[in-house]
Predict the 3D structure of the following.
Amino acid sequence: QVQLVESGGGSVQAGGSLRLSCAASGLTFGSYAMGWYRQAPGKERELVAGINSAGSTYYADSVKGRFTISRDNAKNTAYLQMNSLKSDDTAVYYCAAAHFIATLSSGSWGQGTQVTVSS
């Protein structure tokens, strides 16, 4: 079955950077879209960024210009580089995989990794 394991979360001061990784197994990685969601306490889950099998990307307006999603098909790994972090970015970040970016919410999910940004 599909397994997604996130890593790279932690605590950082506002303005800092973190890189999240999502190691995938049990799927033909190169043919899947990958995405990163986040959920903060009391808030709706939000699709932060997605990348399809062709390398096309999607970003939420709140992270455009600060976050970059990428993938390494040889390593079956997706990444989320987060720069200029703000306290509003504090959330649990989840990796997701599906055939299309539009269907990520109903795809396979990881367990999540906590990102805490202090001001």
Q: What stands out?
A: The mean pLDDT is 97. Residues 82 and 99 are 24 Å apart (CA to CA). The two ends are 40 Å apart (CA to CA). The longest strand covers residues 18-25.
